[in-house]
Design a protein that fits this description.
heterotrimer; A mainly alpha (about 270); B mainly alpha (about 130); C mainly alpha (about 500); B: about 130 residues; Helix Hairpins; C: about 500 residues; mainly alpha; 22 helices
Chain lengths: ~270, ~130, ~500
Amino acid sequence: MKFLGFIVVGLAGAILLYGTGDFPDWGDPYSPASLHISKDYIEKALDQTKVPNIVTAVLADYRGFDTMFETAVIFTAGLACFLLLRDFREKKERFYRHTPTGVILHVKAGKKILDGGKEFEYMDKDWVPSDLIIKTVCRILIPFIQIYALYVVAHGDFSPGGGFQGGVIFGSSLILLAISYNLKTLVKRISEKMLGVYAALGVLIYLGIGVICMLMGGQFLDYAKLAPLIPFDSNHIRALGMLGIEIGVGIAVTAVMAIIYINIVSEGRHDEGL
Amino acid sequence: MTDLLALIVAKYNYWLYVILMMIGLYAMIAKNNLIKKLVGMNIFQTAIILFYISIGYKKNATLPIIENVHGTGGGHIYAIDYINPLPHVLMLTAIVVSVATFGVAMALAVRVYQRYKTLEEDELRMRLSEK
Amino acid sequence: MDNYPVLIVVAPLLAALLAGFAAWIEERLSYPIALLGLAVSTFAAFEVLMQVIFFGPIRYEMAGWPPPMGIEYRIDLLNAMVLLIVSGIAFLNLLASYESVNQEIGDRTGSFYSIYCLFVTGLLGVTATGDLFNLYVLIEITSLTSYAMVAMGDRDRGALASLNYVFIGVIGASFYLLGVGYLYIQTGSLNMTDVAIILQDYHGSSTVLTAFVLCMVGVWIKMAFFPLHAWLPNAYSYSPVVFLRVVAPLMTKVMIYVMIRLMITVFGFNYIFKTLNFADAVVILATVAIIFGGVMALAQKNLKKMLAYIIISEIGYMVGGVWMGNQLGMTGAILHILNDALMTFAVFLGVGNIIYQLKDVDFSNLGGLFGKMPWTMAGFVLAAFSIIGIPPTCGFFSKWYLIMGAFEKGAYHFAIALIISSLICAVLFFRVFEICFFPSSSQDNKQKDVHAPGKIEEAPVSMLIVSGFVSLSLIVVGLFSGTIVNMIILPFLT
């Protein structure tokens, strides 16, 4: 296998290097790639869309159709992780801790599942007492991370950022909660059902805006046609349309990050894990 | 000799991406552990991102975010001052795709481990031929 | 209505999302939603085909931006035909699969329908788009959904087969993406027609040659063309049968379409057959693929695996026909996209019905099926005749065009391989018929008291109706293949 690997790698590398022979020099401002449509994007994007961040303008408007499917890819990944891993069977044995005394109960397979209210806490197999410092620091940090995520989503038009980046940051705040406390804390805050609904909802917002444009008599995703629906600031209508889809993307990405993390880390049982 | 050197200096980014990509491809073909193969897959996809971003670079140009939008500076926008935005857009999509693929592949690896309790390919092959 | 082209793709996506919603709220709603979405898509595809036939190609600019800057859908006769095939087969398959999904997937059927619709969205988007990068994103949607689906099938082997599929699939898609990058650095554009115009000045460039090789290798990996086919047999034989029935006829055929599209629209025949000179080598490779697929199929003991190798051999037919580079070969290849999609669908519908009753299609279990499931087997026989290429069925006509093309080109080895492959298919299927005709002896001892001989245990009615409909359409399409060639394929090629 190793020898075969070397042959394939050598061949593929040789072909790729052969292809670089006719490339323009690296960083050449007059290469074909920088002249044809890229020039148009840079010079016209601000006029046509009123969005100074050209990457956002291209991503969400000129090539917005691509981005919709990109969001669909994210949704697919979440759905695939759920389908592949989710295991609804009850666990065989469980451990509970009596909070006031610290006594640990062992409930064997087939016995009734305890619902001990506040006094009993369901415990992971390899449970360790959570560190007070970590818990406190994370509890303080998480809201700031989330505010920052919202900022990144909302300012995607003007500065580097947008729905994907913001969504990932928001999702990572949820994962931080799961790591610093435990998985159950996260699942208690946002149920599995809500995550599934949010993931679909995010893509649906994107698609819905596109369909509304179509119903208003334009092409699919033609934000300019939204103007009659939004009574203010019709000059920036394309920028507003982009904000709308970025919010949708943000919701979907957040939910899917959490779904993938929860399912992989607990092998689909949603009870214990990192 | 100097010609070749000049060629490499002018295009070293493209040579680097090929080397990086081949490291990933080799890991995917020759490594025995499935997780190492997945890491190779990630390196492979990252190399493509490096390639595209290299296409977009222009010397002496800045980020494609137009300055002085609300100010009085304004004036005409010259394409030569800003790097090419299109490869960045494409790679944003490609990053998302590679993350999604990696997530699904991880889920599959977890399933394989649940079933066979190993992720080494030779052991898996032995298990499969036993039955 | 002007928005039909985009509706073809958006309707299944919308259905996928709503089915995903319904999975959490009221799972029984998922099935009708998915069915409705695919019905709308099929209707739109039909309308678009009619428009294209009567009024010429349609261009649809996404978000109203003119093409090289925005993404455009460009639908001509070839697209329109493949779109209708894909949406139609996906719809019919869903119509037939309510019972088998309940049997095979059990809980979480809602998510299953959602993923199914996403898969179809991906295939339709790949077919409709006129943008090189958009094509890549949609190929990835199809691939991701296939990875998930393959692992859903066989509880034991599915995940491992799927993981190997992931590795190969990622390499294929990445090679395609690299090819697009090489094209972009040379032309600065991503729109297919725009790239084609700029490329005319760069025919000698090593970058374009590399781009072409990378794109072709990427697409060949995805379609499982001969030396790159290793993922297909395992991936297909472990996936759930509902998915198998749609992936086996459609995935490879859509990839053949992508290959034709890249060759005709982007690189151009002049470049491929005049500037480059490895077309003959590809035809030889296709010949090897045909023989290899046939021989490997002979060695299989499981119906699913046998059919998987027949698919590999059918891919050889189409690739060879396209790379023949003459009108007859091309006609044969395009006609075979339609015919092969239909007959593979028909044959797998039969397999699906058998699996619904028997759970397993190892040859040792198939004894006495003609008595037990007469209607299923009738459809299966018709589909098998078509794959072998017996005249009134459609399989014969495309093979005829392919052989004529091979003679015109002087590629006699390809023509001989086609004939040998037909003989091998005949041997394969008559062996299956023989097994199915006589009750196997081991089964007799065990099951005689349970099932009285001659008792009919058919699959559900919905499955039978679809299976019958598709099998009859094989003959209808066969009888009208002259019309199809004259109305769709020849106008497209000239």
